[in-house]
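quick q for whoever's on today - can somebody do inverse folding on this one?? i tried earlier but teh output was garbage lol. tokens:
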């Protein structure tokens, strides 16, 4: 492949890109001159599509066909409670893929997948980077929230593929920030990265020693961010307008878009001012709105949101077997960390002043670019070791959840467990993969399922089925299953339960990369064909054998008596 590796922070509100020459990352401005690009895509009446600042500028006049915060829908089901709660805050419509229940964005008569919309943002970043560098860009490191699950990570990779990028690595945003923070060097230290962005919150604890960046733990909330802070101001403005005029603005998309923009502006200004004046002339027909908002009022509105960041921080410290006093520095990432009350909360949690020598809007993209240099061999003295944020396992009979890889396990990782069948003469099993911390499988997040066929017919409980989980450096899960008696082996890349099939990705990639006029880097929109529904067989994999530690995979023979196996349904 040719060209540079682009480091991309694909954000909820804004995105940023950078490249690195050795250890020196450079943030690349977009064609409009901005160092960050609004993560907004607009579908205009004339059939063209605009991305970034041009899309943001026309949002008030075209609210129902202007898509923002699509990152919050990545890898999500339509019936997800978080998606449901988001619907009443958005001027555009969220639809449902009838084939697999995925959340989709409805644009007129079409349903677009979140990866497809995200690909339009990534394509603009790619085009702008090539324009700036004067050379082709075909590889990228893309960052994701540390608490993104497998489906969301795969959806992000799909978006990159559709945009014409070879996403050679997915890395966690806090980890990327740590790489670019300038901390470590020749001194060993422990750092915390507190990342409160537009739609997600993450915290990671890392140890840096002799050039090795090792993530010890991570925690977070994938539905807590600046959008939620904006929503509190919007609710305040709607209530005040209804009190004064007796009109509910909820049913007016253009008015709601104006409230959202006013809320975002007020939130930003209150990071440096004690009071702002919100003025919205003719917000509804001939009626206008003008009222003050103080920093104290705003902080009171969002007090519970700020407090919600404390529990993940404490969980991360506990998982890393550290206390706040063990942390040598705290790096702040994300635009919301400019809010004075957030900074105070960080000081309360970690008992120290945050490290202030990084730009919270650019440090993640810079770290992604540095990871590109590491992978390209330009930086040989640095090694990054990340972790999986959530436990991974399989469903057993009775809706049990058997963990195979525990949360905060360093990746890459490969681990196996031995299972058996539930019925006599069973020749196949459905292995259902879940991610989470609950005891019941159904209460965790489903990632997908596959079948192992060709099992040697035997009495229930006698077959030995070796299930191996392997997480690569991107955090993407692969599963291999082997019947120890027949020798039948199947190696499967787990398809996320929320995502696009490979043919859809290829088709969308061809369409997005079709030649476009220079003035419109993102031209037109594409539809979404339904994905194939996952296998939903009724048979389940049985509970693990209760014998002592299983023998090595290559030396399995008659270990444990079949009479000791638990009864299976």
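ok took a stab at it. sequence:
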């Amino acid at each position: 492949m040719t060209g540079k590796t682009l480091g991309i922070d694909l954000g909820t509100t804004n995105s940023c890109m950078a490249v690195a020459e050795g250890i020196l990352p450079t943030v690349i401005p977009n064609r409009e001159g901005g160092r960050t690009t609004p993560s907004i895509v607009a579908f205009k009446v004339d059939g063209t599509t605009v991305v970034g600042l041009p899309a943001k500028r026309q949002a008030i006049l075209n609210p129902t066909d202007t898509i923002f915060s699509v990152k919050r829908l990545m890898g999500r089901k339509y019936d997800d409670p978080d998606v449901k709660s988001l619907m009443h805050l958005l001027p555009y419509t969220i639809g449902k893929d009838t084939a697999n229940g995925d959340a989709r964005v409805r644009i007129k008569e079409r349903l677009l997948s979140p990866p497809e919309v995200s690909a339009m943002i990534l394509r603009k970043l790619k085009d702008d980077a090539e324009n700036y560098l004067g050379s082709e860009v075909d590889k990228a490191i893309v960052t994701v929230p540390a608490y993104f699950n497998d489906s969301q990570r795969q959806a992000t990779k799909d978006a990159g593929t559709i945009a014409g990028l070879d996403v050679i690595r997915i890395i966690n945003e806090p980890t990327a920030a740590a790489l670019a923070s300038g901390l470590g060097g020749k001194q060993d230290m422990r750092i915390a990265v507190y990342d409160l962005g537009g739609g997600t919150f993450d915290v990671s604890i890392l140890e840096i020693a002799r050039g090795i960046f090792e993530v010890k733990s991570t925690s977070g909330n994938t539905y807590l961010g600046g959008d939620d802070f904006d929503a509190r101001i919007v609710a305040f403005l709607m209530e005040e307008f209804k009190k004064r005029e007796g009109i509910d603005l909820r049913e007016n998309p253009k008015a709601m878009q104006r409230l959202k923009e006013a809320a975002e502006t007020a939130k930003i200004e209150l990071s440096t001012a004690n009071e702002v004046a919100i003025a919205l002339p003719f917000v509804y027909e001939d009626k206008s709105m003008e009222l003050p908002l103080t920093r104290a009022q705003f902080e009171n509105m969002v007090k519970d949101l700020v407090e919600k960041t404390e529990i993940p921080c404490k969980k991360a410290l506990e998982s890393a077997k550290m206390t706040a006093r063990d942390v040598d520095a705290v790096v702040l990432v994300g635009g919301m960390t400019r809010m004075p009350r957030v900074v105070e909360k960080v000081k309360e949690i970690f008992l120290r002043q945050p490290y202030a020598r990084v730009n919270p809007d650019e440090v993640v993209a810079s770290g992604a670019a540095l990871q590109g240099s590491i992978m390209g061999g330009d930086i040989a003295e640095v090694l990054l070791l990340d972790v999986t944020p959530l436990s991974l396992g399989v469903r057993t009979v009775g809706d049990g959840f058997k963990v195979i890889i525990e949360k905060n396990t360093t990746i890459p990782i490969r681990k196996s467990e031995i299972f058996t069948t539930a019925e006599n003469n069973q020749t196949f099993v459905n292995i259902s993969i879940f991610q989470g911390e609950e005891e019941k499988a159904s209460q965790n997040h489903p990632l997908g399922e596959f079948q192992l066929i060709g099992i040697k017919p035997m009495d229930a409980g006698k077959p030995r089925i070796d299930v191996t989980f392997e997480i690569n450096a991107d955090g993407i899960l692969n599963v291999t299953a082997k019947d120890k008696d027949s020798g039948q082996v199947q190696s499967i890349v787990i398809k996320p339960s929320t995502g696009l099939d490979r043919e859809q990705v290829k088709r969308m990639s061809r369409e997005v990369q079709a030649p476009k006029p220079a003035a419109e880097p993102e031209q037109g929109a594409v539809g979404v064909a339904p994905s194939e529904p996952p296998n939903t067989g009724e048979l389940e994999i049985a509970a693990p054998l209760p014998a002592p530690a299983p023998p090595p995979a290559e030396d399995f023979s008659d270990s444990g008596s079949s009479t000791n196996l638990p009864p299976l349904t």
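fwiw The domain at 390-499+539-564 is CATH 2.60.34.10 (Substrate Binding Domain Of DNAk; Chain A, domain 1). also DSSP finds 13 helices and 28 strands in the chain. so keep that in mind when u check it
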